[in-house]
Amino acid sequence: MTRIHSDLHRFDPVTVIGAGTIGLSWATLFLAHGLTVRLYDPRPDLKEVSEQHFKSIESTLTLLNLPSKGFESRLTLTSDLQQAVTGAAVIQENGPEKLTLKQELFANIENYVEAHTLLLSSSSTLPASDISVLMKDKSRMLIGHPFNPPLVMPLVEVVPGQFTSHEAVEDALVFYRALGKAPQHIQKEVFGFVANRLQFAMMREAMYLVDEGVVAMEDVDEIVKDSIGLRWAATGPMLGMHLGGGQGGMESFMRHLGPTMEKSWYAQGNLKMDEDTISRLATKSRKSYGHSTIDELAQMRDEKQMAILKTRHK
Ligand SMILES: NC(=O)c1ccc[n+]([C@@H]2O[C@H](COP(=O)([O-])OP(=O)(O)OC[C@H]3O[C@@H](n4cnc5c(N)ncnc54)[C@H](O)[C@@H]3O)[C@@H](O)[C@H]2O)c1
């Protein structure tokens, strides 16, 4: 039998709303830590999608030193929202990234859950203050935004809304830590939170450089892996910058390279996500990565990320 962390008992059972990329990965993590999971999704192929997922994820669980079997007795699949959420200690919502859908979903969920239920949304961009707008009690609702795939990646951004209680934030941090994650309490609600804002700023420039023909798509990957990626995996960007300034640290870096940095901000591309751009970059992506299936590439990504994580822990 899978042992359950002592901090997790009060968070059992968990309801996972939405069985897409993120919901299935969260469900796997929760099950592998011994929790009972109700998986809700209105999709008609829920059973097939779920079975296929749990079969393909076994090797990743093994690499993570997590149990990969015996989930069936603790997993319920349902397309009945009331049945899914009644009696749940935690809800982790992963429906489509649409504000009105999430607003109605949480207002609906509120009708069936108890006052102490922790209500978390995986939303990548939508603040809890907006999602909870139709709820009567907004105090237990907040964002628990993972990095994909949540089973593997440590970061979860915990972002309270205007009306989220201090206790709910603390509960979310305890919950994610007990699952082996590295939650970060984000102090202010901003669109896109922190990790994606950083990632998207860099991706805007990377896509622009590829679109302009400055560099091939797969070469951007090599450039980042062999420079910024390696450094940032060790120090993060800010400490990396502090060390880039030599003995004078961050201040020296800014005084020395700041003007060049600022100049390059103005030189950066301002790509529009229109149909033409999507079509041009999609063609380039097929040329760069079309030699392998998405599943093969995702498996390679997971294996490499886990190897890096293991080294980091040492
Ligand atoms: N994909 C990522 O990299 C990523 C990373 C972090 C967070 N997120 C966030 O996680 C959430 C889910 O993203 P995803 O990539 O898993 O999307 P997805 O499209 O893979 O999955 C969404 C699921 O929601 C289901 N669904 C549709 N209508 C629903 C409803 N009314 N109620 C409940 N479920 C419904 C769909 O059937 C589908 O299975 C989004 O809010 C997204 O911003 C995504």
Ligands, deduplicated = nicotinamide-adenine-dinucleotide
What is the level-2 CATH architecture name of the largest domain?
3-Layer(aba) Sandwich
| SSE arrangement, N to C | EHEHHEHEHEHEEHEHHHHHH
Can you summarize the main beta sheet? 8 strands, mixed
Structural category: alpha/beta
CATH class of the largest domain: Alpha Beta
Tell me the number of strands. 8
CATH superfamily of the largest domain: NAD(P)-binding Rossmann-like Domain
**Approximately how much helix is present in the residues?**
40-55%
Number of domains: 2
| Neighbour order of strands in the largest sheet | 3-2-1-4-5-6-7-8
> CA-to-CA gap between the ends?
28 Å
Site (Important for catalytic activity): 145
Subcellular location: Cytoplasm
Pathway: Lipid metabolism; butanoate metabolism
Protein name: L-gulonate 3-dehydrogenase
Keywords:
Rossmann fold; 13 helices; N-(1-d-carboxylethyl)-l-norvaline Dehydrogenase, domain 2; single chain; 2 domains; binds nicotinamide-adenine-dinucleotide; alpha/beta; about 325 residues; globular; 8-stranded mixed sheet
Written description of the protein model:
There is one protein chain. By secondary structure, the chain is an alpha/beta fold. It folds into two domains: 6-185, NAD(P)-binding Rossmann-like Domain (Rossmann fold, 3-Layer(aba) Sandwich), CATH 3.40.50; 195-313, N-(1-d-carboxylethyl)-l-norvaline Dehydrogenase, domain 2 (Orthogonal Bundle), CATH 1.10.1040. 51% of the residues lie in helices and 11% in strands. The chain has helices spanning 21-32, 46-56, 58-63, 81-85, 99-110, 128-131, 166-178, 195-211, 217-225, 228-244, 249-267, 275-289, 294-313, and strands spanning 14-17, 37-40, 75-78, 90-93, 118-121, 141-146, 155-160, 182-185. Strands 3-2-1-4-5-6-7-8 form an eight-stranded mixed sheet. Strand 5 (118-121), helix 6 (128-131) and strand 6 (141-146) form a beta-alpha-beta unit. The longest helix has 20 residues, at 294-313. The protein is globular and about 60 Å long. The mean pLDDT is 96. It binds nicotinamide-adenine-dinucleotide (NAD). Residues 17-23, 41-43, 94-97, 101, 105, 122-124, 145-146, 148 line the site of nicotinamide-adenine-dinucleotide.
